[in-house]
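ugh ok fine here u go
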Amino acid sequence: MQEIKTSKFFPIAKETLKYGEKYPYSIYRRVDERIFSLLLQKNEIFKKSTQCFMVDENNTKLYVKDDDKQYYQLYIQNHIRELLEDEKINIDVKATFIKEIASETMNDLFESDVNCENLSKINNIIDTTVKLILTEKNAMYSMLKVTSYDYYTYTHCIDVATYAIGFGTYLNLSKEQLELLGRAAMLHDIGKKKIPHSIITKNGKLTKEEFEIVKSHPTFSVEVLKESGESNELLLKLIEQHHEKCDGTGYPKGLKEQEIEVLAKIISVCDVFNALTTRRTYKDRMSSYEAFKIMNNEMKNHLCALTLRNFICFMGCNKDLT
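structure:
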């Protein structure tokens, strides 16, 4: 049995391992804290053997080397539909699959050029998420469990999309509306690619001048997407309006409540809630109760009152997560 002591490893879902399949990466099981043993060689067919008992154990965790992480994630991405349709796979694992794919895709989107190919990947993630939530009873609860507690722009986008799709489902929006809402929420901050990195990652409060630069990001988001061939005007409008406020003090156009799209109001509430309940380098995360208190009291003229009230009710249905 080959044992590896020095390499770094990435945990994978053992539910992906099936008899008769072969994988473009070697798979390892953990022996103890620092020792991993080879379970399946790269491109070797997984057959019934004594090793199967190792996989069937409840405490068995599987890994790939960090160098093979990209190949594992590509495998998940290419097989996501069949994995989500597999009734033997736990809903929590399915939610993790989606979160992992979304994280890699959004990170790539922020680190590289925005083009039709990676925007198509975003569409597939949203379609898959909507389908899972509409077909699996506890999917929304599982999706919310894998939202992030630490704030990064790309994970924030994923979490806002998760909240928005779940909330939209609670509001009985159509499948088409959910997909549009999810796409807009996922891409709402893509314009921050054009904001200096030093401002985005600043450890502390922004100066007035820096905040004026940040306020350009909804407009930049629209520009980036248009440059990439996006032509859905409603999608672009939702993204542009996610920082508008009902009293007209928002940006970039200073719209008032009746001028703001209903779906943009949903994104705005989800955006604020996630920002308040995630940890940053200069502040700890708030509890849901603390966040709702601020949203109700200090932001009552900014957020749509009906949307906020419904969102609180939606989160109340998932009270174990609040």
